[in-house]
Amino acid sequence: MTLKRVGSLKNKKHKHCLQCGRVLVGLKDNTEHECSFCGQKHFVDIYGTTLVLTAAERPDLRHRTEPKNPDDPEVVQKKKNQEEFKKNPAIFRNKWGKVKNEC
Fold first, then answer.
1. Per-residue pLDDT reduced to its tens digit, 51-68
2. Alpha carbon 74 to chain centroid distance?
3. Structural contact between residues 58 and 38, judged by C-beta atoms closer than 8 angstroms
4. CA distance linking residue 40 with residue 56, whole number of Å
């Protein structure tokens, strides 16, 4: 039996049960889905257009990444940089642009 499958969300071949191979219908992100035919339980994770099915017996193979906290210093700094860029692109480009080698 397959323990994990990673594939495109748009490809029908990747939406099959890991045990019996029947098509899984109604997959939702961050849920546990049970096959209607064999009863196999799957963890469903969707990242953009990528679908990840993991067997429920092996939750250690699941690598669910949680969204970052908005108060995280890294997120705050990124927002400040975006706002600075929107205000005055010329100053931002001079500050962070390519270094010109004068020979």
1. 999 999 998 888 877 666
2. 19
3. no
4. 8
- Ranges of H-type helices in 1-103: 73-87, 89-96
Rounded percentage of the chain residues whose pLDDT exceeds 70: 89
Q: Helix, strand, or coil here: 55?
A: strand
Token pair for 92: 């931002």
- Residue 37 has which token pair? 């035919």
Token code pair at residue 36: 């209607």
Please give the single-letter amino acid code of residue 35: C
| Model confidence, pTM | 0.61
- φ, ψ (nearest 5 deg) of residue 84: -65, -40
Greater pLDDT, 93 or 26: 26
What's the CA gap between 27 and 63, in Å, rounded? 18
Phi first, then psi, for residue 14 (nearest 5°) are -90, -5
Position of tokens 């990242």? 47
| Residue 40 to residues 3, 17, 55, 56, Cα–Cα distance (Å) | 11, 8, 8, 8
